[in-house]
């Protein structure tokens, strides 16, 4: 049986109930706006010793300042600095955001950091150069680095970059195949509007697809807690 870690993208229940049912969470707050360090230290203290945190890297690294996610987070960057954010640019602002992301990962004792990119971050020479230079440096941090490209990139380029930079290619396994990296890291988004409720048939298909390798399975739909719990029950049947 493969080593499968199942959780949700964010605490979808009160923490006490969540900790009783699941052993993994992907922290979302670190993407939108970094919380107080004391807050995440308290999460680590409250969590069981065998509970695992992963986290999303700050959007200041991955998303431009024009993204709606900045407004949702209440971020209003100075007009003369807006071009300095996102797309893995080689700027002080991006590097500082990476330093802060690492600080929170260390506080949570997380070993996995997820870089979710916007659809606007597609395959261009500039983007590929920025991504390459960022991760050539970031790889020395000792974390497992997960890249979820949502823009248009060729499979060949994704394979090449992930192989050369030591990245784990993150996908929704019901949409596409992961092209590189172990452990595998799956994020199930629930389709348009995150509203899809995964059927037992779909969850069994996913279970049978896992093979014998270590894999993280993160649900990111509205029904994420129930779907994650149902998937764990199916795994226990094996």
Describe this protein's structure.
The chain has 238 residues and is of the alpha/beta class. It has a single domain, classed as Protein of unknown function UPF0759 (TIM Barrel), CATH 3.20.20.410. The protein is built from ten helices and eight strands. It has an eight-stranded parallel sheet with strand order 6-5-4-3-2-1-8-7. Strand 1, helix 1 and strand 2 form a beta-alpha-beta unit. The longest helix is centred in the middle third of the chain and has 16 residues.
Order of helices and strands: EHEHHEHHHEHEHEEHEH
State the secondary-structure class.
Answer: alpha/beta
Q: Rg, please? A: 17 Å
How far the N terminus sits from the C terminus, by CA atoms, comes to 8 Å
Record field, number of beta strands = 8
CATH topology heading? TIM Barrel
| Low-confidence runs of at least 5 consecutive residues | none
Q: What amount of the residues lies in strands?
A: 15-25%
CATH class: Alpha Beta
Q: Would you identify the CATH H-level superfamily?
A: Protein of unknown function UPF0759
How many domains make up the 3D coordinates?
Answer: 1
The percent of residues in helical segments reads 25-40%
Task: Give the averaged pLDDT, no decimals.
Answer: 94
Strands side by side in the biggest sheet: 6-5-4-3-2-1-8-7
